[in-house]
Specification:
This protein has about 130 residues and is of the alpha+beta class. The protein is about 35% helix and about 40% strand. It contains four helices and five strands, in the order ααβαββββα. Strands 1-5-4-3-2 form a five-stranded mixed sheet. A hairpin with a 2-residue loop joins strand 4 (about 100-110) and strand 5 (about 115-120). The chain is globular, with a radius of gyration of 14 Å. The model has no long low-confidence stretch (mean pLDDT about 95).
């Protein structure tokens, strides 16, 4: 696959899972042995699905906007601005009706036309501050 193919694959994952609200289709882009190194998130496709469903349940209008995407070799980095309104329970917090905006930087490793590995950096302070203010 080319660098552009890898970028399209990673972009499609976010688009399907969050913006189109189709996590069941998005997980088909993950390798069978997909691993994430994202904090306490469960490691495989189930962990990815749980993460997506947590945000979709907590924020009815949750969407990501790609700010930058870079690719080199088998790695793709995507910088995303996430926005949403807290309309459902999110990680034990009852709905507040507050708007949130926070950024992430996600690094993916691609092999065989699938996403096989993931790391992230999340601006959790911005998310928590928006919900608690």
């Amino acid at each position: 696959m080319t660098l552009d193919d890898n970028k399209q694959l990673v972009g499609r994952l976010s688009q399907l899972a969050f913006n189109e609200r189709k996590p069941e289709e998005a997980i088909e882009l993950l390798a069978a042995d997909f691993r994430t190194h994202a904090g306490s998130q469960a490691r495989g496709a189930d962990g990815f699905t749980d993460l997506v469903e947590t945000f979709l349940a907590g924020f009815a209008d949750f969407r990501g906007e790609t700010l930058h995407m870079l690719a080199e070799g088998d790695r793709v980095v995507i910088f995303t601005l996430w926005r949403g309104t807290h309309t459902g329970t999110f990680r034990g917090l009852a709905p507040t009706g507050k708007r949130v905006a926070f950024e992430t930087a996600d690094l993916f490793r691609v092999a065989g036309g699938r996403i096989v590995e993931h790391w992230d950096v999340v601006d959790r302070l911005a998310l928590q501050s928006a919900l608690m203010s």
